[in-house]
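To the team - HDD complex, inputs and output below.
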Amino acid sequence: MAADERDAKDRQLDGDRVDSDRPLTTDTGVKVGDTDNSLRAGARGPTLLEDFHAREKITHFDHERIPERVVHARGAGAYGHFRPYEGLSDVTAAHFLSGPDVVTPVFVRFSTVAGSRGSADTVRDVRGFATKFYTEEGNYDLVGNNIPVFFIQDGVKFPDFVHSVKPEPHNEIPQAQSAHDTLWDFVGLQPETMHMMMWLMSDRAIPRSYRMMQGFGVHTFRFVNAEGRGTFVKFHWKPMLGTHSLVWDEAQRIQGNDPDYNRRDLWDSIERGQFPEWELGVQLVAEEDEHKFDFDLLDATKIIPEEEVPVRPIGKLTLNRNPDNFFAETEQVAFHTANVVPGIDFTNDPLLQARNFSYLDTQLLRLGGSNFQQIPVNRPVAPVSNNQRDGFAQHRVHRGRTSYFGNSLGGGCPALGGGSGVYHHYTEKVEGDKVRVRSESFADHYSQATLFYNSLADWEREHLVEAFRFELGHCEELEVRQRVVANLNHVDHGLSVRVAEGIGVEPPEEEAGPNHGRSSPAVSQLSTTFGPVVGRKVAVLVADGVDEAAVDAFREPLVGAGAVVELLAATDGAVRTSEGGVVTVDRAYTTVSSVLYDAVVVPGGPESARTLAGDGGARHFVLEAYKHHKPVAAVGAGTDLLAPPLPDEVTSAAAGTARTELGVVVSPEAGEESVAEFTRLLGAHRYWDRPTASVPA
Ligand code: HDD
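Output:
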């Protein structure tokens, strides 16, 4: 498929797209001449029942809501395509993975888990990463998360887990938060949650952007090749922009400043033509190696460390088209783990087995019956030919007398398929007693939680400790806090002591067992991609008298590298420059906040700097960005804005020549070197070595 060509899904949707450029009609196509006044018996009289237009209009409105998803209710989606790097026919018969010539249209929906549909984006939570591949052999759904493990091992516990994390049932508080007693009560009593809780308390749970987030299929799935040979497979999505996160304090403030932060970021990037991309990778394990690990491949609370089985990149996902209508597409898209294509099969992971029941079941309720696959966003591009008839909202007009298999009256159609493209379930021998037990091989709940902890950079560990303290500090019951601390003691003694000390409970006296000392560097965000500044937002603070040359010196190369640069002043409009010109202001800083930007530049110009330094709003903007470890650049007189209470190292640097101190670039004028240094810092995401505890922002 050429880059400018429209894919099969896009073309298919043309038949469903409707523009509002025709005269207003009723649902039955009758033109309407007045939709503001209902039909009345007398100008001041009662409304008449025969006003079919008013009744229809109000009735439709009354029925506009459908049940939101019971989990992952809040989300945002986009279309795009997937292209393999190479053929994978040695391990899978899946046609969409057969080679770079096969480009498959996709729809991806990102989501948070716990909050309701209108909740804020930047809560501490797992993110969903669900991909529908519209393959030529039918739809394949990879319904994953941005964390590679899960809370529980058996799907029968999913309702318990979700009930515990959702708002508490008696007062429906708190919304989209995990910092409350019921979740941590559940966690304390279910040690199998511990590995996942470590990831959830890490920075992974507050991604800077969906574009900067990994995705994982979580379960071990099975590839099956044309000869019927199976290979275990774990799926990984790696963002081309690297995996980067917010700071917790910042994330909380964004919830108020822009609850749509992640959704907007995705939408805007695609509108700007900066298409988000991920590489799909697989970890492959031969059937005969199933038992060579010190954990069970069927246990979804475990990763296969990348150092043991490397991730092989197999293709690229690009999101390049925003939906036309949120409800029709993003809300009505229906994912299902059992939507598989030939070459991809399940394993006996008990979590996956439950999911294969739950997703279909939930769509039947949520989308009002069994014909939801006919909804445009769900409709396959592969031809559908079956004997399913009737049901609510049947949209297809099936012709012919027969709707049963084994017929002569319909010429035997639809006939059974043959050859390639037919789904064959993997032949696996299973036998055993009918028992309600958990396999012994699922019993180790702590080793990988420890592995994760051991693998984190110092700043990641600090954030983790702070997160546990924040969350447990919101639990009213000390007993709940204490029980979690006791579990953490099995992960790492030092960690449990530090958490306990922050939340007023007894630190464990002795370690529950020695830390095994093993690590997996790949799970640290330190091992991600740094450098690209595409779509990163830079605020340039200006006032009358600003040094226009300094503004341009930063703006031009940053925009050239793909960053979004906005000029902010006390009010909208324009400001005069020291050179006698004017520059347009993009926004008033009173309407935004530093938390919505990745970095700040304060250009020179004595008058501009004086005005900004005298404005609490501008000073707070810089201080807060500093507090959140963001790169700051100040040029010439702009360094006035860095004056106390920023630490001496930074402010004293202002008096010198061009230099970088604690992630702050200060220079007498905007030279190429300082702009390049600032761009490097922007691409490095945050300057974590900067101490910020004493910064009052
Ligand atoms: Fe689930 C939605 C991911 C376990 C039951 N799940 C849902 C979505 C994602 C995941 C990304 C949103 C899809 C969308 O955007 O529409 N779920 C996961 C992952 C899991 C997992 C990665 C563990 C590895 N889920 C899981 C279990 C069950 C469910 C064990 C039930 C036994 N999940 C559902 C659901 C949802 C759902 C109730 C709600 C809406 C929907 O399915 O379509 O069926």
